[in-house]
């Protein structure tokens, strides 16, 4: 399964595809404007790159409205700082163009990937991870991790603090609603269980222990075998 | 047939040694059960089985007491020691049962420290009970049990203080853990009580 869906003509986004291939990121590409929405519906990619030459503002608006759980990155067919600013104002999580080098493109995509998107309701999207407390599910690339209610709440708490380590006491208070007694290992036990289930699902996300601080959720940018799927 | 004028009291020594080993096994099992909780494979049934074994050994000592004219120590001391060792296992089993009864989600570090002290105390008690015949080196183990009891007191005080450090700790957590801390402390105290009985026996018979 691809990690990123690219809606653009391949010839136009050559540097981007090169950067993705070098970064061993799987992607699918759709080149015709009429097929973009259908491709997004059938794809599980949480990150969509749409070129301005493929779709107008109306298409991007529909994508944001119909797929609030996806991260929308825009490829500018002609580099322009004013247009980039307008696209960011419009709601793009990132704007890329052909003047950027491969490492800059990958870095910007990584940043976009780690952005948390909250869908209507309680759903939370963090890269390929989708957490829906209302439904009681946490998915990795669409596969259910099978977390218990408490484990799900611990994961959600960590996911809502991207790039930041949380103290055990902080996690306990958010999940259990009480102060944590000194010496209580409830958070550690639940974190261990979530770790086990993430590992069992082959997820590259990890709950990292920050000595002296607590726990931090890390969802790295995908790094799988390069593969191109043409839609 | 070989006749001996020395009274046959070996069975008592053997049974006390077995009772000590049984208490040690129960302490080790419960320490593991707490440490690995909630993913432990050790069932409460296994702990319960050791408690039953303790009851059986106690009953066996009482049976001997009622059928032997000659005993290695005063009858009331044998009776007291058998009961004291049995009480150790009873307290261990009760503390373990609370893990399930209170649906404990995860252990507390202080309880794990108590379990470790309990294993140490039970280890020394088992050594002491295996040395009732001749009392060689027994005082070292009795002193060590007293040290364990002191350490247990320190841990339980700290553990209970931890529950009350923040007013917003869940009242349910306080009730659950206070009971468990106290149950483990009683198990450690029971080792010390048994050590006292052994100490009295040593004083009378050495």
Strand percentage of chain B: under 5%
- State the oligomer: heterodimer
Give the overall silhouette of chain A: elongated
The share of residues in helices of chain B is over 70%
Strand order of the largest sheet of chain A: 5-4-3-1-2-14
CATH superfamily of the largest domain in chain A: Response regulator
Q: List the helices and strands of chain B in order.
A: HHHHHH
Largest interface: A-B, 15 and 19 residues
Q: Helix count of chain B, per DSSP?
A: 6
Straight-line N-to-C gap of chain A:
13 Å
Top CATH class of chain B: Mainly Alpha
What does this structure look like?
- The complex is a heterodimer of chains A (231) and B (206).
- Chain A is of the alpha/beta class and 231 residues long.
- Helix content of chain A is 37%, strand content 24%.
- Chain A has 2 domains: 4-113, Rossmann fold; 148-218, Winged helix-like DNA-binding domain superfamily/Winged helix DNA-binding domain (Arc Repressor Mutant, subunit A, Orthogonal Bundle).
- Chain A is built from 8 helices and 14 strands.
- In chain A, the strands form 3 sheets. In chain A, strands 5-4-3-1-2-14 form a 6-stranded parallel beta sheet, sandwiched between helices. In chain A, strands 6-7-8-9-10 form a 5-stranded antiparallel beta sheet, with helices on one face. In chain A, strands 11-13-12 form a 3-stranded antiparallel beta sheet.
- In chain A, strand 3, helix 3 and strand 4 (71-76) form a beta-alpha-beta unit.
- In chain A, helix 1 (14-22) crosses helix 5 (102-113), helix 6 packs across helix 7 (168-176) and helix 6 crosses helix 8.
- The two termini of chain A are 13 Å apart.
- Mean pLDDT of chain A is 85; it is low at 224-231.
- By secondary structure, chain B is mostly helical.
- Chain B has one domain: Up-down Bundle (Methane Monooxygenase Hydroxylase, Chain G, domain 1).
- Chain B has helices at 10-36, 44-67, 75-101, 109-129, 138-164, 171-205.
- Chain B is elongated.
- Classes of the chains: A alpha/beta (231), B mainly alpha (206).
- The interface between A and B is medium-sized, with 15 and 19 residues.
């Amino acid at each position: 399964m691809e990690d990123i869906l690219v809606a653009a003509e391949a010839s136009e986004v050559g540097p981007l595809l090169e950067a993705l291939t070098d970064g061993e990121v799987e992607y699918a590409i759709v080149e015709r404007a009429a097929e973009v929405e259908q491709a997004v519906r059938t794809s599980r990619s949480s990150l969509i790159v749409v070129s301005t030459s493929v779709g107008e503002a109306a298409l991007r608006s529909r994508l944001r409205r119909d797929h609030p759980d996806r991260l929308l990155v825009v490829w500018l067919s002609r580099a322009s700082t004013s247009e980039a600013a307008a696209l960011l104002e419009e709601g793009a999580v990132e704007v890329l163009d052909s003047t950027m080098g491969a490492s800059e493109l990958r870095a910007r995509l990584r940043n976009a990937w780690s952005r948390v998107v909250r869908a209507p309701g309680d759903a939370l999207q963090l890269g390929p991870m989708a957490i829906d407390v209302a439904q009681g599910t946490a998915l990795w690339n669409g596969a259910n991790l099978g977390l218990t209610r408490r484990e799900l709440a611990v994961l959600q708490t960590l996911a809502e603090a991207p790039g930041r380590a949380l103290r055990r006491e902080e996690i306990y208070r958010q999940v259990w609603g009480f102060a944590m007694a000194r010496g209580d290992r409830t958070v550690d036990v639940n974190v261990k269980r979530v770790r086990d289930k993430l590992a069992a699902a082959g997820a590259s996300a990890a709950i990292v222990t920050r000595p002296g601080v607590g726990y931090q959720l890390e969802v790295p940018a995908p790094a799988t075998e390069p593969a191109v799927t043409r839609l | 047939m070989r006749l001996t004028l020395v009274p046959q009291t070996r069975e008592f020594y053997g049974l006390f040694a077995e009772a000590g080993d049984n208490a040690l096994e129960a302490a080790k099992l419960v320490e593991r059960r707490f440490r690995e909780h909630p993913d432990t494979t050790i069932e409460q049934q296994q702990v319960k089985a050791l408690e039953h074994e303790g009851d059986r050994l106690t009953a066996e000592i009482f049976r001997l007491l009622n059928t032997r004219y000659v005993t290695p120590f005063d009858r009331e001391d044998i009776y007291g020691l058998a009961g004291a060792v049995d009480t150790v296992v009873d307290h261990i089993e009760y503390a373990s049962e609370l893990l399930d009864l209170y649906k404990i989600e995860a252990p507390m570090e202080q309880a794990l420290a108590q379990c470790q002290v309990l294993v140490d105390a039970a280890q020394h008690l088992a050594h002491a009970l295996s040395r009732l015949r001749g009392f060689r080196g027994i005082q070292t183990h009795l002193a060590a049990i007293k040290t364990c009891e002191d350490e247990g007191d320190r841990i339980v005080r700290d553990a209970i203080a931890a529950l009350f450090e923040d007013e917003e700790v869940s009242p349910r957590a306080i009730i659950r853990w206070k009971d468990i801390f106290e149950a483990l402390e009683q198990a450690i105290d029971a080792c010390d009580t048994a050590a006292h009985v052994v100490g009295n026996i040593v004083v009378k018979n050495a």
